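Person: Please comment on this record:
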Amino acid sequence: MKLNDNPKFLALSPLKQKIILEIQQQSISKSIEQMLPQIMMINKELNRRNMSFTKQETELLISAMEETMTPEERKKFEMIKAML
């Protein structure tokens, strides 16, 4: 299911939707290693605004990123997720 068709995504605040879409768009041309620092910066910004992603919202973010990954990148990402 595409992100924009996902009812869980559509139920998010506009700011969280924007963040997820930006990360998804930026992940198209970047490796997992390149994306991790950016995700950390976004998390820091959310904390500064007294916001955070719930577990369900984080799963949406991960799903959005995985949509743009090559099979090799997806495999690396699965390994990283398993370590967390």
